[in-house]
Every structure is written in structure tokens, then in C-alpha cells.
Amino acid sequence: MAFCMRGVRNLELIGFLILFPLLAAVILLFIKNDSARKVVVGASAAIIAIASLALVIGNLSTPPIYYEFDSQIVEIICVAISIAIGLVVLWFAYKYKNILAGVLAAIQLVGSLIFDFAFAPNVHVAQGLYLDSLSVMMTFIIGIIGSGICFYALGYMKDHVEHHPDEEDRRPLFFFLMFLFLSAMYVIVFSNNMVWMFTGWEVTTLCSFLLIGYTKTDEAIANSFRQIVMNIAGGIGFLIALFYCAGTMNTLSFIEFIQLGLSAPAVISLPVCALAFAGITKAAQMPFHSWLLGAMVAPTPTSALLHSSTMVKAGVFLLVKLAPLFAIATAPAVMVVLVGGITFALASFMAISQSNAKRVLAYSTIANLGLIVACAGVGTPEAVWAAMFLILFHAAAKSLLFLCVGTAEHHIGSRDIEDMDLLFERMPQLARNMMIGIMIMFIAPFGMLISKWATLVSFVDNHQVALIILLAFGSAATFMFWAKWLGKLSGVAGQPANVETTVHKTEWVAIYLMTVLALIFCIGLPLISSTVVMPYINGVYGYTMTALDTDILALMSILSIAVIVLLLAGTTGASSKRKVDAYLAGISVSNADRSFRNSLSQETRATVRNMYLADTFGEERITPVAEISTTLIIIGSFAAALATVISML
């Protein structure tokens, strides 16, 4: 009886989490008053976060639950949404004369209509919704981190409008798309019906397209079309998988698809390749990484949302769900493993050559997603454990860093790392939060490094020599670009004015929320492993995984607490310390400008600049190699999958 009551309560919460953000989005589309918008966004974000937390807390350590839910109304809505998305993209393609986008949109629209009316009605999915530990984890990321980013956007977008007085104030559309994004993500992570999942998938593609092109500059429009072209290509891959599943396997239930695949790997080689292709494009893996780099032209909340809790996380979510099939299906596994590994290493190298903070974060995101993709491709329980923790830590730390960079840009007038000298003095609170985010990304004992350790263990256990090499070189590059940035922030010489007094409270709330979440994830690593990650792995693979040393996890948790205490202790009493002029190698002229008179009686400004090694690791040098190699891998994998299908005929 208690189980039935909990099942009903879960189903109600799932429905609420899908529908409430949609309702908030529609309301925000018609609100133009700042005060009213602040109330609606704040209340909606809080309600979404509370409902998400309630679902998470009520379903820790629980086995997968599949709900009997089948609705003809939902099917009709999905068809209507597919038609609407196709028409919207076709209209924009016509308006901006983008032929490729129009052709792909037309292909997907026609394909969707054929599928919806000729194939889908013949297949019944009784269990339309489900809940497992992976969807619980994604619920937390979407509901807490995603809604926190929406709340942060209140202050940021107000400054954005003030800094761009020549632009039309389109904040109603902006917040509509942000909350619609959350609703679509919930559809993806809760849907066992693959048609419903595909509908949520395509809604995120359209929202991303509109958000990237938000400013309507030529660059923004070009980058938004790059995104829509690449992601519609992935959507067509998803659609091919749906045709195959309905026509050949007579199922559109995701769990049935997995179960059939485990019993007949050769049968599912092609649809798994098609779904993996969709996941790779959505996760911005090479050769499709350029759309995520182009997303940097959008306002910072968009970047944070796409990079941390929504768009790209949908891609890796799908790949992690497919991980058991990658363990037995050779062609898609080779594609995912090699594309992910190459992306991790080469994106990390290209991050070294960047001084633009948002591009560093973009390449870092692409690289970390590559590592998650590679873990999913390996498909073992240990690799999935590492992938899930990489998703969790990346979501919190990267959203924190994006928000910090956005706030810094508005107050120091630049997003260039070289302009962040003395940020510890100019914006002390922000600098501390940013430093915590950076340290979580690459320094022991914080969680991201532990996840990479687990990744290495899984690669070694499975004799993945190529991945071990890629992980080693990529990790070295990771250390280099994060250490350069951290060093810039650490400088405290001089006495520049504090400019963070005008930061909006909504920004501080969101930034500190991300910081607290990231630190809680580090401290609670053993608990998260036992209550969320391990139950998912045990439910999927059917046995208890014991390869990971729980004593090491507990030790890292304790060390994280110690490091956090030291960091916080270092901030106390800072205002009472006497500040002195910096020592400059000569007669000081201006301590504020760090200038001095040298031995030739000439005025010299003391500067420190990082090495970026653009000639070695520049985009122009590495990108062609990355795109050619990964394209050949994808083509070869599809050819192998098609050969497998033909051999069965």
C-alpha cells in the first residue's frame, strides 16, 4: 500500500515538474514589468527546486519504477509539437536564406509526419513514464541548478538591457525559453516512450536555436543556424532509430529496446548507432563541437544553462542510458569511445590557447563531455559510475564558473583572463567563488579528479590503451589551462577599487547556491555513491559493483572538508589587515597601475601574462585533424552497423 501511494505521489510530481515550468514559461511570455517578472521567476524557480528536491529525497536507493501511463492526448500533442517545430525552423530558414537548415528541417518534418501517421499508431507503449536513480540525479541537476540559473538571469538580463540600449528588450521571450527548456528536459529524463522523449529532444533544440540567436546580431544568427543544422542532423538520427524500432523491433519502449538489445546485439547495432549519433551531436562532440562554441555569443545565463544542466546533458544522459548496449555492440561502441576520447584530448589542448574565459569554459565543457561519452561507450559498471559523477560535478562547477564570468564581465568590462589581474581585490567574493569552481574541476581532493581516477580505473580494467593515452595527455592539458587561470585570480598586489558592490542579489544567490552545491557534492561523494549512483548501476547490470574502494571515497570526503575549512578560514579578518604598496623593481611611480621607473629612468608597467601556445595548440591547427578523424570514425561505424543489418537479411 505504501509503495502504491509513493508511486502515485511520484507520478503526480513527475507531471507537475513537466507542466509547471511550461505554465511559468507561458506566463512570463506576457509579463513586461520588472517587478512582476522578478516575483514570477523567483517563485517559479523556488517551486521547481522544492518539487525536484521532494522527488529526489523520496526516491533515494530505489529500484527503477515504470508507470502505466498512456494518453492519446499526449500523442496528439507530440505530433502537433513536431509540426510546429518544423514550421518554425522552415520560417527562419526562409527569412535568413539558410538553405541547408531549410532542407534538413523539411526532411525531419516529412519524416516525422510519416512516422507519426504510418508507424507510431501500430506500436503501443503502456508504460509511458519511468523513474530510476539516473533520472533522479538529472531531476536534481535540472530542478536545482537549472532553476538557479533562471533566477540568476533576473539581475544579469537587467544589466544586459542597460548595457545594450540599442537592442529591443526581449526578456519576456528569454525567460519563456529558459523555463520551456526545463520542461522539455523533464520530458526527456522521465519518458520511457521514445516518441515523447524525441519530442522533448527537439524542443530543446529549438529553444537553444532561439536563445543563441537572442541578440539578433549577424554573428548570433550565424551561430544559431550552425546549432540548428547540427542538432537537426542528430534529430534525424534519432528519427531513424524510431523508424527501425517501430518497424523491425515492434517497440517504442526504451526499456524494452534495451532488453531486446541485450539479448540480440546484432539486431540493435544500427538504431544504437543512430541514437548515439543523436547523443554525440547534442553533447557537442567533435566534429559537431563548433555549435557549442558559437553559443558563447548568447547572454551568459544561456551559456550556463546549455553547458551545465540542460542541452548537452540531454546528450550524455541518452548515451549513459545506452551504456549496457555499448558493452556488447561493437560498431556503436567504437564510435562513441573514440569520438569521446579524441574530443576530450583535443578540446583540452585547444583550451590552452584561449584567453577568452567563456571560450576556455566552452572547450572545457566539450572536453569533459568527451570523457563522459567515452565512459558511456566503454559500458561497464565502473565506467558508468565515473560517467555519472562526472555529470554531477561538471553541472555544479561549470554553472558556477559561467555565472561568475558573466558577473565579472559586467563589472570589469571584459571576459578575458588577462584582464582578471587583481580580481581578488576588485571582486573578492566573486574571485573566491570562481577559484572554488576551478579547483573542483581539477585539484584533489575535490570530486572531479576522483571521477577521473575512476575513469582511469575503468579504462585500465578494460585494457583501453588508446583511451588511457588520451586521458593522460588530455588531463595534463586540463591542468595547464586551469592552473593558468587560477594563478591570475590569486594575485592580490595593489589596491584597486572594489567594484562588486553593485552586483545584483539574484546573482549572488545563484552563485553561492552553485558553490554550496559543488562543495556538498564533494563532501557527500560516498553518500551520493551509495544512495544514487550504485542503485542505478545495480538495477541496470543486475549485480552489486564492488570495484571502487569506499575507503578512498571517505578519505577524499574528509580531505574536502579540511580544504574547505582552510579556504573559508583564510577569508576571515581580511578587511583588518594593513595593505602596503607592492614591491616593484625600481622607484615606484604608481602602485595602483603597478608602474615603476627602471634603471634607464624609463617608466615601466609590471605585468604578468600567461603563455597560450597558440602556434602549437591553436584552433586552426587542431580543429581540421579533430573534425576529419571523428567524421571518418562516425562514417565507419555506421558502415559497420549497416553491414551487420544487411548480413541478417
Task: Explain what you see.
This protein is an all-alpha fold and 649 residues long. The chain has one domain (2-70, 124-570, 612-648). Helices cover 74% and strands 2% of the residues. The chain has helices spanning 2-29, 34-57, 72-95, 99-119, 133-163, 171-190, 194-212, 218-249, 254-263, 269-282, 290-294, 300-309, 311-321, 323-326, 330-352, 357-378, 381-412, 423-426, 428-442, 447-461, 465-490, 505-523, 525-541, 550-569, 614-617, 619-648; strands at 65-67, 129-131, 587-590, 595-597, 603-605. Strand 4 and strand 5 (603-605) form a beta hairpin. Helix 5 (133-163) runs antiparallel to helix 6 (171-190) and helix 17 (381-412) packs across helix 23. The protein is globular and about 85 Å long. The model has no long low-confidence stretch (mean pLDDT 86).
Task: Summarize this structure as a short list of keywords or feature phrases.
mainly alpha, single chain, two-stranded antiparallel ribbon, 26 helices, 649 residues, 3-stranded antiparallel sheet
